[in-house]
């Protein structure tokens, strides 16, 4: 085929555009350890925030560049349920939204665990399966803490063509070694090193912009331009180098060309030095900032209680005297000597006064609360500070027996701060501090705390853990193995019920199951719980012969505590049934087999594939069992099949389904609305019925129906409208036989005297359709047809007496059909 040149060119252009797409996902560690300090005294999280916001500012303004952000550890405390799945793509890889990226990074608060492998696996799912360039840059201060498989994640990255760059923040040697062979790795110990590593990581796909850009600053006093006498100096957060700005005029305007990045501004005024932090200078947008330098008429009053907070506790905050400001207000909790935009926790607040609550981190260094204003341009100003304090450590103790039976409840006597996320855990001796096993929270409880141990013998420790994973108290103890035994027969037939007796600790979740002899630990099939010290239960033997084991296992990963061998032997399967059956009739079937749970008999066409089933009955219904034959004549098979073996056919026998005979006797033409007597010779099986429907009605459609299983005659109330109809013999929606029926226009007569005495008796005679619901009514002359004063049902008697009204006047006799139609009207007078 010869395509036009322009078509080929367009195709090449589309391919080129698609392949030019670049997708970069930044993954930021927000685990609790990010509050630890770097060698220069700054917290790791603050360094990461400053560097990342500046890094985003330097990215090129490329329409083909798509940058997303994933956080882990930002929502859930390290030991809380779900901590190892706390990983979220907070910003998708859709274009480059600098403002959203920078704002999200600034507001990140470290809290939880370090699920690196899980985050990488989820990140791989975030990328489309296309030819775009794909890069993940992971910034972390620790190693995997959730036992994830980093190598498996790396294999998935390689398979999907995703490049991985890992940048460590002040990692120790052990943590650095954990990333051997996982992408490319670089450790950093300062803000400058981190910025350099980020630039290197994206150099091949999105080289950062290396240029200076103009920064404009407007100083104001009470919202009006400041008239002079001030100086402004910018300090790059990476190196702290001062960059004095140039005065533009006497209206408080300053200007300076600086490299893109994150800065702090110091404004020297007549009343002192004002500091504005968190200034991000972007490569491709105007960088204008406005600083209010007027003397604050009232500092925000910020207090807290209790006055000496303990680590991990929650304090109450009160604030008042908040001035009228433009921007967002927060209360920051920060180390006393950290920059104004630094914090270890924060909460948003509103109004001139109010209250708030905040959790105190487990950091034993001087801290303070700050009332902070974040202006629309991103600059930060502190409007008030609390008194300084140092979080206090609260002592904890734990006490347990020296020895217990593995799997029993461990009764722990404890004292401690009982903060909201504090917990007590049981771990094997030698477990690294911060690790945890089975645990229970102490907040809202009283001593002692009971913890269900795993059924594993050995030396263990019980530890009182803070919410941030510090060990506040510990005690060693020993767990000895419990005694387990089970008793079961050495042999059983397939599908047979097996009685099993057991003795054991009877711990919740213990169970007994039967599996193939070489099945891995944790495998189970049919089972019952063994949550009492001894007892007897029933298992269903497998439906496949072979060597098996009956196992006593725990819910701790299915650990097998004891097992006995059992041989499952096969059985003969057979079916006995008549050679033929009339369509729709039931057939009685004798069977031999395992009678296992899920065994059943079915009747299907002879050429149906094995495993197919139609009408069926479970063997547990008895022996023999009955099946209903299909309505369609032909060659069929009765099959013994088993759900437990994937509907495998274990026995089969042929059967021929012969056609049924149908014979109906009824008048071929009657008046519409007549009660029609239908005599029939037909199978009359359960569920078969007769209907009368207009000719041409789709098979399966009907309204009234009449079952045929109770005799050889059915009385049918025919429809009230004349026309051509069919009498149909049916089962479900299938028409088995049909015969035509004509319904003629209904007619009626009434013969009665012209008058009679009031309250007297009048004899009348009638003819008509004689439907059981037809009636003759007495009405005043002129009454609507839906109204009358007396009525008489119609039976077999064609002559009967009626009682006349007491009130003299003109009346009518009307023949009223079941459908409410008046077939004839005869007037008479009551005297």
From TrEMBL:
Protein name per Swiss-Prot or TrEMBL: VWFA domain-containing protein
Alphabetical UniProt keywords: Signal
Domain of life (superkingdom): Bacteria
Signal peptide: 1-20
Residue span(s) of domain VWFA: 23-205
Organism of this sequence: Deinococcus cellulosilyticus (strain DSM 18568 / NBRC 106333 / KACC 11606 / 5516J-15)
InterPro entries, per the entry: Filamin/ABP280_repeat-like, VWF_A, vWFA_dom_sf
Keyword Signal: yes
